[in-house]
Amino acid sequence: MSIIIAPSILSCDFGNLERDFELINQSEADWFHVDVMDGVFVPNISFGFPIISALKKVAKKTIDCHIMIVNPDQYVADFAKAGVDILTVHYEACTHLHRTIGAIHEAGMKAGVALNPHTPVSVLENVIADLDLVLIMSVNPGFGGQKFIHQAIEKVKQTKELIAKSGSKAIIEVDGGVNTETGKLLVEAGAQALVAGSFVFNSADPKATISSLKQL
């Protein structure tokens, strides 16, 4: 399959969200990547349900939601109601991860688990068969535009091995510091979906930038 490109709307122009949503609709991108932060699990606050619901009304592509919040279980139904297609929670935020994954599926969404840079892939051994997606963080979560952590490449390889060993159908997504250079290395390592924010929206031609990532 060709690489999935998921532009992060955290890097959109907040004064022109509808314009940038439509730009993604018209581009070769596959997903809208939505980062939800609560200012507790990570040191930043971002979108809430009204923005996701507004996006759902205009989005012509999959809504891939990455939640960096404490107590994610209490909001699973709300994310489903807002129109999220893929809901990714953090391993580090879930005391009962297996139950959380089950709740996401029961709500009608695909389930993903994100790993912070310091968290080893091995923690997913007992849930990998239940996952639709593993999100490898190649920066510390909370802010866009950070420097790529190269250890993420090795973690992608480890995740690919774990998926193959378990027979899981989960795909590997990477978020943080993605550009054409790091993206190429990640795809070669086994990544199937790339999140790109500032690299896309700070470029002179976002559509062309998305196209360049799509060709990796």
UniProtKB/TrEMBL annotation:
Pfam families: Ribul_P_3_epim. SUPFAM superfamilies: Ribulose-phoshate binding barrel. Keywords: Carbohydrate metabolism, Cobalt, Isomerase, Manganese, Metal-binding, Zinc. Pathway: Carbohydrate degradation. A divalent metal cation binds at H33, D35, H66, D175. CDD domains: RPE. Its EC number is 5.1.3.1. GO terms for molecular function: D-ribulose-phosphate 3-epimerase activity; metal ion binding. It catalyses: D-ribulose 5-phosphate = D-xylulose 5-phosphate. Its cofactor is Fe(2+); Co(2+); a divalent metal cation; Zn(2+). InterPro entries: Aldolase_TIM, Ribul_P_3_epim, Ribul_P_3_epim-like, RibuloseP-bd_barrel. One of its GO terms (biological process) is pentose-phosphate shunt. Substrate binds at S8, H66, G142, F143, G144, G145, D175, G176, G177, G197, S198. Binds 1 divalent metal cation per subunit. One of its GO terms (cellular component) is cytoplasm. The active site is at D35 (proton acceptor), D175 (proton donor). Belongs to the ribulose-phosphate 3-epimerase family. Catalyzes the reversible epimerization of D-ribulose 5-phosphate to D-xylulose 5-phosphate. PANTHER family: RIBULOSE-5-PHOSPHATE-3-EPIMERASE. This is Ribulose-phosphate 3-epimerase. The gene is rpe.
